[in-house]
Design a protein that fits this description.
By secondary structure, the protein is mostly helical. The chain is built from 11 helices and 2 strands. The protein is 56% helix and 2% strand.
């Protein structure tokens, strides 16, 4: 007999196959998505982190990624968009509550869910105009749309993770898993988002770097990217430190 966890993952995979089967199948799943929202009830969290990743991938795809085709009648399209808007608002509300919850497990679920939405917002999107790697758009100048929504979600996590290195480490770990190449057809990441994220990361540099590290630990961790002059408005760190590896090693008093 399959374990409860195996059974849930099997169901989620079947639903994801249905989502990718045809535009009609995806639309049917969207209109019947409410049963999936029961798993997001904060009063009885029963999913593992991996199950939650798959569930949020499914739900965020329904809202942001699925192409429902062009054969829908106007009344059907209007109804579909209303359901998408409602589901989008619900997911954002739930993730915001999760991220700001005092329980560690709940916060982790919030980070996972928000990163899945960010991924759905920034992949395979048509840019408003030609964007080069050198052009950086300030948040206030970024055109309204999914990429700008993604930047707001990043800022939500960064704000909630202020002085919380565990949350910040998990955010970067989850985001790196979404951005790294995977099997199948290559996907295009929004250049506008990449430009913004590369620049805005320096706002939170004090959360991911250290200028003083106990010498006994220097040989145990890989130091990367020695900085000379990052930005005149920030203190110049000597090294950046892979905080994720240090945190998950569960070592104490790494920093002096």
């Amino acid at each position: 007999f399959a374990s409860s966890s195996d059974f849930k993952m099997t169901i989620l995979r079947i639903l994801y196959d249905i989502l990718n089967d045809s535009p009609k199948s995806a639309a049917d799943l969207l209109f019947n998505h409410k049963i999936l929202l029961r798993a997001l009830d904060i009063s009885r969290v029963e999913l593992t982190l991996n199950e939650h990743r798959f569930l949020m991938k499914l739900l965020s795809s329904l809202v942001y990624s699925v192409d429902y085709g062009t054969t829908l009648k106007p009344v059907e399209l209007r109804a579909l968009n209303e359901v998408k808007d409602t589901l989008s608002e619900h997911l954002n509300m739930v993730n915001c509550k999760y991220i700001n919850n005092p329980e560690v497990k709940i916060r982790q679920l919030g980070i996972i869910g928000t990163v899945k939405i960010i991924s759905a917002l920034i992949f395979d999107k048509i840019e408003e105009s030609e964007v080069t790697p050198e052009s950086v758009i300030a948040p206030e100048d970024m055109p309204k749309g999914q990429v700008k929504d993604a930047t707001k979600l990043v800022e939500l996590i960064m704000t909630a993770a202020d002085k919380n290195h565990e949350m910040l480490a998990m955010f970067y770990d989850e985001l790196s898993m979404e951005l790294k190449p995977s099997g199948g057809a290559p996907r295009i990441i929004s250049q506008s988002f990449l430009n913004w994220f590369g620049t805005e990361t320096f706002r939170f540099l004090n959360e991911i770097v250290a200028t003083h590290v106990n010498t006994e630990f220097i040989t145990q961790f890989d130091f990367v990217n020695k900085f000379d002059n990052v930005n005149e408005s920030y203190e110049t760190p000597e090294f950046s430190v892979p905080i994720g590896s240090m945190i998950f090693a569960e070592m104490k008093e790494i920093f002096t």
